[in-house]
Fold this protein.
Amino acid sequence: MSKTLIVAELQNGAPREAALELITQARGLGGELVSLVIGSGVAEAAEDLAKRGGGRVLAADDAALADYTSGAYAQAIRRALDQESPDLLLLSNTPIGWDLAGKLAAALDAGVATDVVRIEQEGDDLVFIKRMFNAKLDSRLRVTGSPRIATVQPGACEAYAGSDAGSVESLDVSGCGSRTVFKELRTAAAGGHDLTKADLIISGGRGLQKPENFDSVLKPLVEALGAQMGASRPVVDSGWLPHEYQVGSSGQVVAPKLYMAVGISGAIQHLVGMKNSNFIIAINKDADAPIFEVADLGVVADLFEIVPALTEAVSAAKGG
Ligand SMILES: Cc1cc2nc3c(=O)[nH]c(=O)nc-3n(C[C@H](O)[C@H](O)[C@H](O)COP(=O)(O)OP(=O)(O)OC[C@H]3O[C@@H](n4cnc5c(N)ncnc54)[C@H](O)[C@@H]3O)c2cc1C
C-alpha cells in the first residue's frame, strides 16, 4: 500500500489510544503514513502524534473546528485527501468515525468497510477483516473506489508504541464550516457505581437469561467476594441494569485485579473494556466462546450450577 491517511481523534487535547492503534494498522501495511489532527489549538497534539509514530502529521487547526460537526470535519478531511491523494483512509470505529466514513464515502463514491479488526495486503489489493457471529467467523471484504475507506475497531490491535520522529505541517482549512451549529456537549451525570476504581468485578451477560437472575444467582457471589457487579451491553440495553454497569467499548474500560465474566461470550467490544485486567476468570458453557482467549482461568460449565457452588465455597471459606 503506497499511502495511508489516518484521521487521529483527540480526547482532552491528546491523541486517543484508538488513534495510536490506527498507526499500528497503517504501519503494518508499509508505505507512506500521513496523519490528520483536526480541531482548534491542536499544535501540541500534532507534535505529540508526530513523536509517537504518526509520520507526517497534518494539523487542521481552525476556530471553526473547535467542536465536532460532521460537515466541517468532513470538509477538512476532503482538503487533506485532495492534497495527499492517499490510497487508504483510516478512521476509528467510533461514533465520529462512523459519521465521517459514511459521509465521505457517499461524497467520494468510494467503498467503505466498517468495524474492521485487521487489514491485509493481498497482491495489489487490500482485504479488510471483520468479525462475525461473536468472533466465530471472519468476513474478508474487498472495497472498490478511491480512496478505500475503513473504520477500525478500537482495541483490535496494540497502540503503536514506537517513537519515530515525524514532522508536522499545517493544512489550510480556511473556510471549512458547517450548516450544523454546535450547541452544547452533555455528559452523563456520574453515578455511584464507578467500576474503574474496583479491584474485583464480576460481570454478567446474556447467559444469565433474565434480570431476576442477577439478583438471585450473581449478586450473592458478588457480595460474598466483596466485588462490584458489571455487565455486558445487551444486559444494559435490555434495561436489566443501568448503563454505569456496562463494561466495554461503549461502556467503562476497567482493569481490576480480578475480572470474572459470567455468561459473556467475549465479543471484541466487551474485550476492549476488560482485557487489561490483572487476572480474568471466564465461566461459559460454550468451550469455543471467544472470552476464553483472554481468560487466565476458563471454566466450561453451566453458570447456574457453578456460580451458586462457588458462592457457597466462598462463604464456607469465610466461615459464613
Ligand atoms: C458499536 C458497538 C458497541 C458495543 N459496545 C459494547 C460494550 O461496551 N460492551 C459489551 O459488552 N458489548 C458491546 N457491544 C455488543 C457486543 O458486540 C456483543 O453483542 C455483546 O458483548 C454480547 O453480550 P453477551 O456476551 O452478554 O451476550 P451473548 O453474545 O449472547 O453471549 C452470551 C454467552 O452466555 C453463554 N451462556 C448461555 N447460557 C449459559 C449458561 N447457562 N452457563 C454458562 N454460559 C452460558 C453463551 O454460551 C454465550 O457465550 C457493542 C456492539 C457494537 C456494535
User: Anything to note?
Assistant: The helical segments are 17-29, 43-51, 70-84, 95-108, 212-225, 233-237, 268-274, 303-317. The mean pLDDT is 94. DSSP finds eight helices and 16 strands in the chain. Residues 3-170 form a domain with the Rossmann fold fold (CATH 3.40.50.620).
